[in-house]
Amino acid sequence: MRYLYHAMCMNLKSIAQYRASFLMQNIAQFVMVGGEFLAVVVLMTRFTSAGQWSADEIMFFWGVMQFTFALCECLGRGISTFAYYVGSGDFDTMLLRPRPLMQQVMGHRLDPRRLGGMIVGGGAIALSCARLNIPWTAERLGLTLMAAVGGFFLILGLFLIEATVSFFSVRSIEMVNVLTYGGRATCQYPSDLYPRPLRILFTWVAPFALSMHLPISYVLGKPLFHVPTALVWLAPLAGPLFFLMMTRVWHVGVRHYRSTGT
Amino acid sequence: MRNKLRPYLTAFRVRALLETQYRGAALGGLVTQLFFGLVYAYLYAALYAGSDPAGLRATVTYVWLQQMFFRALFVSDGELQQQILSGSLAYTLCRPVDQHLYWISRNLAAQVVGMLMRALPMLALQLIVPAEVRMALPASPLALVQFVVSLLLGVFCVSQIHAIGLALTMKTLDNRGLSAMLSLLLMTFSGNVIPLTLFPDSLQTLMRFQPFAQALDAPIRAYLYAPPMGEWLVSVAVQVVWIAVLMALGRWMWARQLRNVTVQGG
Fold first, then answer.
1. Is the Cβ of B42 closer than 8 Å to some Cβ of chain A?
2. Residues from chain A contacting residue B177 (CB–CB below 8 Å)
3. B245 touches chain A (CB under 8 A)
4. Domain extents in chain A
5. What is the reported pTM?
6. Is the Cβ of A28 closer than 8 Å to some Cβ of chain B?
7. Of the ranges A140-144, A200-204, B149-153, which is most confident?
8. Closest residue of chain B to A25, computed from CA coordinates
């Protein structure tokens, strides 16, 4: 982990060299995610509630998803743009260095523009909390954190699928986006709104429901799927588990990797 | 007349042929659009919660039409940016054509061909979409005709917007920030993110008359509601006015840019 820390510090230093650009890009991201925020506000003004969820509760789900996804795009930039490094030969350089491979990939790039998105996501969480009167116990706080951590690793794992595909096809396949960006669009709303096939897809294949919706629904006092409390704590681990599995698959890909040449 | 139009028709044809090469991208886009269409449709089904079946049907149809003709909003043409960077823009500028019209012809080709390559298979896929979230037929045969006419005007309107974007690219030399902003505006205010029909009633007039609504929202409203001839002609007039305004603005900007263009690279 020391390598990763070091690499990230280096990245931050390089970004600090371009302060104006950094600020501009953050404002652009802020406006973009802000636009999505307004879209949800428009929808919830029109419909006032979605299934069993009130407008503020939907906003809470939305905020956690946006914040986590933006955080993941920021820290996981090296993974989400991995296909380029295979194409450009940067990955060959990494293979030669005597440092853990995954940490090198993760530390290769940061995307601090996403701060703008995190601010909007965090703002949505704060706004909905202010209106919801959630009795903030240590348990609820812990579960919210678990949802963010679980979601973080899940999304990272989904980016890894894209990275693995790039070993076998030089052109990254757009269909993988269905799970990442489609997952974000779908699962920014709780999964009980959707019909069975979509629910199954986002519970057992890309487990957004387990790692995010279940703990959040518990925090909001309307636990999904009627599961016992102990399982609510276990469910977000689906995220890290998914990430570990995808790391293994990715390493299999690495073994089959043949350089693209220069 | 024919001879004068020929270079633009050729520009159109060349760009159209190029667009047909991106069949893989079209296929990938098809899966993505089908997925998003399904997700949105089911989301609205949950939001309406059985309270307004006609409203739900209209919204679902709106969503599908947006997903089908979504590509009409974009030209995804990095050509000008590349020519600016490499300096080969100098050769393009030497051509004895009207630059503004030349780029508009290219825009139109990318929009129309890209749109058809996605819309037709999407239409066929409606047959396998579950009945409860399937799109409705046009309100009447006349509504279908109105839809097609409005859609063509809408596509033309978008090509003017992109021509303005290209003029700005000439000025700023880097179109990344600009094109991100432009696609955000196009996606949001053309009704792709959420149907413009769902905005609060107090904002409806504003929403219908702003330029981005002329692209897909105006034709979709014709498809859904089969407006009386008079009302529809008003919406067509709004489209034509916007096309005229944007075209005039675009021509003025292009003329200005071409007067003090600096060729980079070498």
1. yes
2. 24-25, 28
3. no
4. 23-255
5. 0.88
6. yes
7. B149-153
8. B177
Query: Which residues in chain A have their CB less than 8 angstroms from residue B49's CB?
Result: 51
Contact present, A210 and A203 (Cβ < 8 Å):
yes
Predicted local confidence at residue A245, as pLDDT: 94
Q: How many CB pairs under 8 A join A and B?
A: 67
Residues from chain A that touch B46, judged by Cβ atoms under 8 A, are 50-51, 193-194
Using CA atoms, how far residue B65 sits from A185, B107, B207, in Å, is 19, 21, 18
In this complex, is the C-beta atom of A46 within 8 Å of any C-beta atom belonging to chain B?
yes
Split at pLDDT 50, 70, 90, the class of B265 is low
| pLDDT over 70, % of chain A | 96
pLDDT grade for B58, boundaries at 50, 70 and 90: very high
Q: How many domains, in total, are found in chain B?
A: 1
Paired residues of A54 in beta bridges = A49
Q: Scanning every residue of chain B, which has its alpha carbon at the shortest distance from the alpha carbon of A40? A: B194
Cβ atoms within 10 Å, residue B264: 13
B23, B47, B76, B118: best mutation site toward chain A, by most A Cβ within 10 Å?
Answer: B47
ipTM: 0.85
The C-alpha angle A51, A57, A60, rounded to 5 degrees, equals: 135
In whole angstroms, how far apart are CA A135 and each of A140, A219, A221, A236? 8, 9, 10, 21
Q: CA-to-CA distance for A20 and B46, rounded, in angstroms?
A: 44
> What rounded mean pLDDT belongs to chain B?
88
B1 pLDDT band, cuts 50/70/90, is low
Is residue B171 in a domain?
yes
Cβ of A198 under 8 Å from any chain B Cβ?
yes
Domain for residue B200, yes or no?
yes
**A9 has a pLDDT exceeding 90:** no
Least confident among A66-70, A152-156, B71-75: B71-75
pLDDT tens digits for B168-189?
887 777 667 777 788 888 888 9
Pairwise CA distance, residues B136 & B56, whole Å:
11
Position A74 pLDDT exceeds 80: yes
Q: Give the number of other CB atoms < 10 A from CB of residue B153.
A: 20
Residue B265 lies in a domain: no
Give φ, ψ of A51 to 5 degrees.
Answer: 60, -125
Domain of B169, in residue numbers: 2-259
What is the rounded distance in angstroms from the CA atom of residue B52 to the CA atom of residue A49?
14
Would B155 be classed as within a structural domain?
Answer: yes
Instruction: Say what the pLDDT of residue A124 is.
Output: 94
